[in-house]
Amino acid sequence: MDDRTAAPAPRSRRERPAKPALTQAGIVAAAVRLMEAEGLPRVTMRRLAQELDTGPASLYVYVANTAELHAAILEHHLGTVDLTAAADPGRDWRERIAAVLESYTAVLFEHPALAHSALLARPAGPHYLALVEALLGLLDEGGVPAGQAAWGVDTLLQVATATAAEHSARTGAEAEAEHGAMVRALREADPARYPKVAATAGELVSGRPAERLAWTFRMLVNGVAATAR
């Protein structure tokens, strides 16, 4: 047999390049890349294991389940929330809280599937703690008692998260058609039967989304400050 046509000798498994060791940071980074490429619903333990060329059992050493994995992705993106507004001495503390919450909501707006998942995800990393610390610090600056501030931060983040989740679920032509139908129903309400609706129909649908969101945050902050536990 011609040596040039001979089959190559099999390589020992020991000669193959070793795979990088798994780490929690590496797993989360791969999960973030997978979400950006294929969407959050595709980020499962099994799919991520395929991406990392390992078995799902290997991932469970670092991440308990898919819910915890999604929470880790959320924690990663919380690092992009702009907290610089919290340290701006030229603005009222209420305005600074609203600015931080608007940045948090904007991050979720950029990742619609993550916004919906954030309703159930429970991040617990340094970015989440920095966000809570900033909000608590601003409420303390405004003289809000610690107990009210603690419950208030939870409510503020819940409303911001729910707003982003609703936004993510209502996009496209169908959502616009539904909104148009609601606006028509309000504007055409029978003043004899619905006098308050007819009188305020214009105000009910007024304002840009960003304006309404900022007002919502200011209203909530004022409520937290004024409502004793």
Automatic annotation (TrEMBL):
<dbReference type="GO" id="GO:0000976">
    <property type="term" value="F:transcription cis-regulatory region binding"/>
</dbReference>
<dbReference type="InterPro" id="IPR036271">
    <property type="entry name" value="Tet_transcr_reg_TetR-rel_C_sf"/>
</dbReference>
<feature type="domain" description="HTH tetR-type">
    <location>
        <begin position="21"/>
        <end position="81"/>
    </location>
</feature>
<dbReference type="InterPro" id="IPR050109">
    <property type="entry name" value="HTH-type_TetR-like_transc_reg"/>
</dbReference>
<dbReference type="Pfam" id="PF02909">
    <property type="entry name" value="TetR_C_1"/>
</dbReference>
<dbReference type="Pfam" id="PF00440">
    <property type="entry name" value="TetR_N"/>
</dbReference>
<feature type="region of interest" description="Disordered">
    <location>
        <begin position="1"/>
        <end position="20"/>
    </location>
</feature>
<protein>
    <submittedName>
        <fullName>TetR family transcriptional regulator</fullName>
    </submittedName>
</protein>
<dbReference type="InterPro" id="IPR009057">
    <property type="entry name" value="Homeodomain-like_sf"/>
</dbReference>
<feature type="compositionally biased region" description="Low complexity">
    <location>
        <begin position="1"/>
        <end position="10"/>
    </location>
</feature>
<keyword id="KW-0805">Transcription regulation</keyword>
<keyword id="KW-0238">DNA-binding</keyword>
<dbReference type="GO" id="GO:0045892">
    <property type="term" value="P:negative regulation of DNA-templated transcription"/>
</dbReference>
<feature type="DNA-binding region" description="H-T-H motif">
    <location>
        <begin position="44"/>
        <end position="63"/>
    </location>
</feature>
<dbReference type="InterPro" id="IPR004111">
    <property type="entry name" value="Repressor_TetR_C"/>
</dbReference>
<dbReference type="GO" id="GO:0003700">
    <property type="term" value="F:DNA-binding transcription factor activity"/>
</dbReference>
<keyword id="KW-0804">Transcription</keyword>
<dbReference type="InterPro" id="IPR001647">
    <property type="entry name" value="HTH_TetR"/>
</dbReference>
